[in-house]
């Protein structure tokens, strides 16, 4: 548990530094203060992609190795990914309202496909909640977790596939299309949010392990023994 | 018996069962045609001037109702039937393929009739030489929808909330197919190439096919 606390502390410090840079980076002439949205919008959506990628990886590894830890990894990452994706979509809507004059524009393929991606993983989480048996739940959700990832490239490439309001990536092989200070601020925030993701993952997986141990104890002993205390369960 | 023969046999049995029950063409198809009318009336359109919306409405209804058709075949699978086919040594991949083939055939028939109904009700202005590309888009979309629905049907088999949950799983994942299918006609109207959209549909189908066949054994294990 100490490792989780340390990770959370590091993440908070990194987010603090990212916030400082965000409020001291240059502003776009047209967008003004809304330029700072880049420091939340891009990192949260990057983490949603990462989280759903980790869900797919955990799912595949569970199907191959049949170890519960990979199922916990996939499930924890999907929960956190949905959280980040919702924040990313919401910040995108706020930004869109300021820049395009409306929060939701069907001309923005990235916004629509990202919102749809959230529903894919909401379905994944609902599937998990619908199955009591842990092994059955792990297997079925691993199958869905493996297939669901096909949505991620669609979201990424949507800006190239359809006519859209959303801009294409600002960081390209031939260089970035934004001022260096803004780029640095954004990258620091990406790193800080990634650290937050790692800390949240560690915390969520710890909780999942405790839940699984408690459930296992109930299944084996029924009411004849008391459930395990948290302090008895091995630390992260 | 080869995998292909097993798959065809499963598909044949599913289609025979469907012919006896007949829900697809007796209940779901008329319901879908009514939905075509409801869309037009709900938008407050004069039905003769709503031609532009026709193809879009067609794809939306074809996908949403088609999903129900494709999910039905796995809903008919009872535990005893599953046990029987397993004891007979049926390859899980053949079960997945066979179920998908029968769903794709039913969907192809359903969407074809629905498209004709849309033409009659909406009188859309279609680009020249639309039949070939549209048929291709229709075939690729129905294959993808059948594969995806079969997968979702297996993942949710036996669950209390199966009907709603399977739809919740399929609906967002079907987006690449909706985009690809609807953009074929749009691309033709713009006189731009349809290759990109055919490629999107084909890639989605292939990914789903590989995933479905590759995951068929864990799917069978998870269904017990």
Task: Walk me through what this model shows.
- The complex is a heterodimer of chains A (236) and B (224).
- In chain A, 72% of the residues lie in helices and 2% in strands.
- Chain A is mainly α.
- The longest helix of chain A is centred in the last third of the chain and has 42 residues, at 180-221.
- Chain A starts with a helix and ends in a 15-residue tail after the last helix.
- In chain B, helix 2 packs antiparallel against helix 3 (54-75).
- Chain B has helices at residues 3-21, 23-42, 54-75, 79-87, 92-122, 131-155, 162-173, 175-189, 195-214, 216-223.
- Chain B has 224 residues and is mainly alpha-helical.
- Chains A and B meet through helix 4, helix 5 and helix 6 of A and helix 6, helix 7, helix 8, helix 9 and helix 10 of B.
Summarize the entry for a quick read.
The complex is a heterodimer of chains A (236) and B (224). Chain A is an all-alpha fold.
Label this structure with key terms.
heterodimer; A: 236 residues; mainly alpha; two-stranded antiparallel ribbon; 7 helices; 2 strands; globular; B: 224 residues; 81% helix
């Amino acid at each position: 548990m100490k490792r989780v606390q340390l990770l959370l502390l590091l993440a908070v410090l990194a987010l603090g530094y990212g916030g400082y840079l965000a409020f001291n980076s240059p502003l776009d002439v047209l967008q003004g203060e809304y330029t700072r949205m880049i420091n939340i919008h891009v990192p949260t959506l990057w983490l949603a992609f990462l989280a759903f990628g980790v869900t797919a990886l955990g799912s595949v590894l569970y199907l191959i190795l049949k170890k519960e830890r990979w199922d916990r990894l996939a499930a924890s990452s999907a929960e956190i990914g949905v959280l980040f994706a919702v924040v990313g979509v919401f910040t995108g809507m706020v930004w869109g309202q300021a820049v395009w004059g409306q929060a939701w524009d069907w001309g923005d393929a990235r916004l629509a496909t990202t919102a749809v991606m959230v529903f894919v993983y909401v379905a994944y989480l609902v599937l998990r909640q619908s199955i009591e048996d842990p092994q059955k739940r792990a297997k079925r959700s691993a199958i869905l977790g493996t297939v669901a990832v096909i949505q991620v490239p669609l979201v990424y490439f949507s800006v190239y596939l359809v006519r859209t309001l959303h801009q294409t990536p600002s960081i390209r092989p031939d260089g970035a299309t934004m001022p260096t200070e803004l780029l640095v601020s954004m990258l620091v925030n990406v790193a800080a949010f990634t650290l937050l993701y790692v800390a949240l993952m560690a915390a969520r997986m710890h909780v999942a392990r405790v839940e699984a141990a408690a459930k296992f104890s109930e299944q084996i002993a029924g009411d004849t023994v008391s459930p395990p205390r948290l302090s008895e369960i091995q630390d992260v | 018996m080869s995998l292909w023969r097993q798959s065809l046999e499963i598909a044949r049995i599913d289609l025979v069962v469907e012919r006896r029950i007949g829900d697809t063409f007796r209940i779901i198809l008329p319901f879908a045609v009514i939905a075509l009318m409801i869309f037009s009336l709900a938008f407050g359109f004069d039905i003769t001037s709503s031609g532009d919306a026709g193809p879009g409405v067609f794809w939306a209804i074809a996908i949403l109702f088609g999903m129900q058709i494709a999910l039905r075949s796995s809903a008919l699978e009872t535990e005893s039937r599953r046990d029987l086919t397993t004891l007979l040594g049926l390859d899980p991949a053949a079960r997945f393929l066979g179920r998908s083939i029968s769903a794709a055939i039913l969907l192809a028939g359903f969407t074809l009739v629905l498209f004709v109904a849309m033409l009659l009700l909406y009188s859309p202005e279609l680009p020249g030489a639309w039949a070939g590309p549209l048929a291709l888009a229709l075939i690729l979309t129905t294959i993808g929808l059948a594969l995806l629905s079969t997968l979702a049907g297996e993942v949710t088999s036996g669950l209390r909330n199966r009907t709603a949950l399977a739809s919740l799983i399929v609906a967002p994942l079907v987006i690449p197919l909706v985009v690809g299918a609807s953009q074929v006609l749009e691309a033709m109207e713009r006189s731009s190439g349809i290759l990109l959209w055919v490629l999107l549909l084909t890639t989605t189908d292939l990914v789903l096919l590989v995933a479905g066949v590759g995951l068929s054994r864990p799917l069978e294990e998870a269904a017990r």
